[in-house]
Design goal:
The complex is a heterodimer of chains A (471) and B (100).
Chain A (H helix, E strand, L loop, with lengths): L1 H22 L5 H19 L3 H4 L4 H24 L5 H25 L2 H4 L5 H28 L16 H22 L4 H19 L7 H23 L2 H24 L4 H6 L2 H4 L16 H9 L3 E6 L1 H6 L2 H13 L3 E6 L9 H9 L6 E3 H4 L8 E5 L8 H4 L18 E6 L19 E5 L2 H15 L1
Parallel strand pairs in A: 1-2, 1-4, 2-3, 4-5, 5-6
Helix pairs in contact in A: 1-2, 1-11, 5-7, 5-10, 7-8, 7-9, 7-10, 8-9, 10-11, 14-20, 16-17, 16-20
Chain B lengths: L1 H25 L6 H11 L3 H11 L3 H39 L1
Helix pairs in contact in B: 2-4, 3-4
The chains are: A alpha/beta (471), B mainly alpha (100).
Chain lengths: 471, 100
């Protein structure tokens, strides 16, 4: 039986690697997840006859296993199928948290198990890995739950400042240090004391939540990506504890790729990961923000449409507002009308537009926008000066010129789209509120900027009508 | 000698898998970052397998309860991760179809 298991796990690992490889190219991406899916199904099925289980069969456990898979799978399936595309980032967060929780649960069972009675006692080094995996997994679990709550804009999590207090980092470090210390005590003393282990888990869970609570929603993608890497690492560590090669390989691959992705995302925001984690927006800037002068000049959707219809080049900058309004379909419909009038239409995507890298690309792909119209920031930033109209849809911080000039601004130094270089700027915005970073945007007050207020989908519909009326 | 090999083989796995994960992400276009993050999220759903083993070995009711929770969470990670990723990538397929 051991050979069967190892052969299937080997196959699974191969399918995961090939699947991820295929997922990293647009044309093969879809088949990639299917390959990885086959790997997962194979591994799950064969694990029912894993020698570690069949050595001492306890029938009740099989019943529990099937029920747990059915419930967990059904809830997750329902959630994944029903949720709107805009809510995808928080869904990734919550499923990632579940993985971390599962890793922590494995560790808990291993630590609580009284090895004196039915198996050889594990080495201290194994227990240290179990404890480390438990700590990382539990942090990922509670942190991801907080991230989910923030992105879902649940009321309790809404106010980031509420969770900030002086000496916070010291308190967090104290919690973390106690968790590590307690974990080491458990591992070294081979203690199976339920009390000690419970306190250890509570400390780990508390640290994860405390770490994520003060972080603003704009930084959440980086944090979710980091927790994703954490879960991978936790899974790999528990894989070593169980001697499970599929978990080891899959966990390490996710750990390393997740770490790299986190670094890439932080880099796109021109911040280091530690900066995201340990400093709050408010504490960053020194002195008062530069005074914003000028006034907001509103414009009606049909007028905006006419300006675009007679332009030769329009660059569209989508942001979270487009996602919230589900406006991508209407926007693309409008673009097609513009293109029929021989207007050159391009989309410019900031690396952190929306709540996650690639978030906008997913939405535009959903609407059917071809790839060759979509450009990354580096590719298109020079072109804004040749554009007649730059249309900003519910984006704010990623087009704020303060990032270039205002040293006191919390977003100073972040690369931005040079929307202000375009001849005319139109901004679709729901209201006069500030962006996620909570700061005013000088772009909106510029002489060549017009504000088109309203829900992005309704505005786009108004623009479509405006273009059609031109005949 | 065999003991030495047994000691080093996990370290080799660690190194090679680590480099592999790094390489896979390194060449990915920005547009696939979110789906790929979702994909890697699915891959660590393999934790389900470990949770099954943990539950299978559980003896006391407490171990069974924790094991049950572990399998439930692991299954959620695997199933949810799969369908979220699939839904995202489905869109890339449909947009390709319209291009033609």
């Amino acid at each position: 039986m051991g050979y069967l298991i190892e052969t299937v796990y080997f196959l699974t690992a191969a399918l995961f690697i090939l699947g991820l490889k295929r997922m990293s190219h647009p044309t093969t991406a879809r088949s990639g997840i299917v390959w990885a899916g086959y790997g997962m199904v194979l591994a799950t099925l064969v694990s029912f006859v894993h020698p570690q289980i069949t050595a001492h069969i306890i029938p009740a456990n099989y019943v529990l296993m099937v029920i747990a898979i059915a419930i967990g799978g059904a809830i997750a399936w329902y959630g994944a199928k029903k949720v709107a595309m805009t809510a995808m980032p928080q869904m990734i967060a919550i499923y990632n948290g579940m993985g971390g929780g599962a890793a922590a649960a494995i560790a808990a069972v291993e630590l609580l198990k009284d090895h004196g009675s039915h198996a050889a006692a594990p080495a201290t080094s194994v227990l240290i890995m179990a404890v480390a995996g438990a700590l990382i997994g539990a942090v990922s679990f509670s942190g991801s739950v907080v991230a989910f709550g923030k992105l879902q804009e649940l009321k309790f999590f809404k106010d980031d400042a509420k969770f900030r207090f002086s000496g916070q980092q010291k308190v967090n470090m104290a919690i973390f240090a106690s968790a590590v210390l307690l974990g080491l005590v458990v591992a070294v003393s081979h203690s199976t004391s339920g009390g000690l282990i419970s306190v250890f888990f509570l400390l780990a869970l508390a640290f994860g939540a405390m770490m994520a609570l003060p972080i603003g929603g704009a930084d959440m993608p980086v944090v979710i990506s980091l927790f994703n890497a954490f879960t991978g690492l936790a899974v790999a560590l528990e894989g070593f504890v169980l001697g499970n090669s599929a978990m080891i390989i899959a966990g390490i691959i996710v750990g390393s790729s997740g770490t790299l992705l986190t670094l890439m995302m932080a880099k796109a925001m021109n911040r280091s990961v530690s900066n995201v984690l340990f400093s709050n927006w408010a504490a960053l800037g020194s002195g008062e923000a530069q005074e914003v002068t000028g006034s907001l000049k509103p414009m009606e959707p049909p007028d905006a449409a006419i300006q675009m219809a007679y332009a030769s080049k329009v660059i569209i900058v989508p942001g979270y507002g487009m996602a919230v309004a589900q406006a991508q379909h209407k926007i693309w419909e409008m673009c097609k009308l513009l293109m029929e009038r021989d207007v050159v239409v391009k989309f410019a995507i900031h690396p952190v537009a929306g709540r996650m890298p690639g978030h906008m690309n997913v939405l535009l792909a959903e609407a059917g926008v071809p790839y060759d119209l979509i450009f990354d920031m580096d590719e298109i930033n020079e072109e804004f000066s040749t554009a007649d109209v730059a249309l900003v849809i519910g984006a704010n911080d990623v087009v704020n010129p303060a990032a270039r000039t205002d040293k006191s601004s919390p977003i100073y130094g972040m690369p931005i789209l040079n929307v202000d270089h375009a001849k005319n700027v139109q901004v679709i915005k729901r209201g006069k509120g500030v962006g996620f970073a909570g700061i005013e945007n000088a772009l909106f007050f510029a002489d060549n900027t017009r504000m088109v207020y309203g829900d992005a989908q309704k505005v786009a519909a108004g623009m479509i009508q405006g273009i059609k009326d031109l005949g | 000698m065999e003991a030495v090999v047994a000691f080093f083989s996990p370290i080799y796995i660690l190194m090679l898998a680590g480099i592999l994960g790094y390489e896979i992400i390194g060449k990915v276009p920005v547009i696939l970052h979110t789906p790929l993050m979702s994909g890697t999220n699915f891959v660590h759903g393999i934790v389900l397998v470990g949770a099954m083993v943990a539950l299978g070995q559980a003896v006391t009711p407490l171990e069974q309860a924790i094991g049950f929770l572990g399998v439930l969470l692991g299954a959620g990670n695997a199933v949810g991760g799969y369908f979220v990723t699939e839904r995202m990538l489905e869109m890339f397929k449909s947009s390709k179809g319209q291009e033609k």
